[in-house]
């Protein structure tokens, strides 16, 4: 049974490697650091997967490990940047990508994670709630609040 969980963990890690990398990269904005985070996360998964009680939570558990490893890395580095390389920025927009990076980095970690998972990774709110171990209504409220905060900053002041 334990070897079955290990084999399934390896299969999920390989299948979703690019997604884990994009998620880590969206936090650290550095290719090598994102690769290190994914590698560290994979190590943790293989090391700890036998302790997981229910195999059907394996996928969300792995994403949670990648998110936590990314956040831990940022805390250690005392940087708080997010990459929006995956998001298309309209050409007519007078904001630069750095402006968006600065805006996202101004959000609380959980709010930023929700925005990244929703709009960069294109996850459903239910999936985000499961990964972050939150109520769906809490995820919706945090997302709404984060988007409202971003919108206020992005809208030009009325003259």
TrEMBL record:
Keywords: Sigma factor, Transcription, Transcription regulation
PANTHER family given in the database record: RNA POLYMERASE ECF-TYPE SIGMA FACTO, RNA POLYMERASE SIGMA FACTOR
Organism: Lacrimispora saccharolytica (strain ATCC 35040 / DSM 2544 / NRCC 2533 / WM1) (Clostridium saccharolyticum)
Domain of life from the UniProt record: Bacteria
Single Gene Ontology BP annotation: DNA-templated transcription initiation
Family note: Belongs to the sigma-70 factor family. ECF subfamily.
Matching Gene3D superfamilies: 1.10.1740.10, Winged helix-like DNA-binding domain superfamily/Winged helix DNA-binding domain (1.10.10.10)
Protein name: RNA polymerase, sigma-24 subunit, ECF subfamily
Record-linked Pfam families: Sigma70_r2, Sigma70_r4_2
RNA-binding in keyword set: no
GO MF annotation terms: DNA binding; sigma factor activity
Chain ranges of the RNA polymerase sigma-70 region domain: 16-78
InterPro entries: RNA_pol_sigma-70-like, RNA_pol_sigma-70_dom, RNA_pol_sigma70_r2, RNA_pol_sigma70_r4_t2, RNA_pol_sigma_r2, RNA_pol_sigma_r3/r4-like, WH-like_DNA-bd_sf
Limits of the RNA polymerase sigma factor 70 region 4 type domain: 100-150
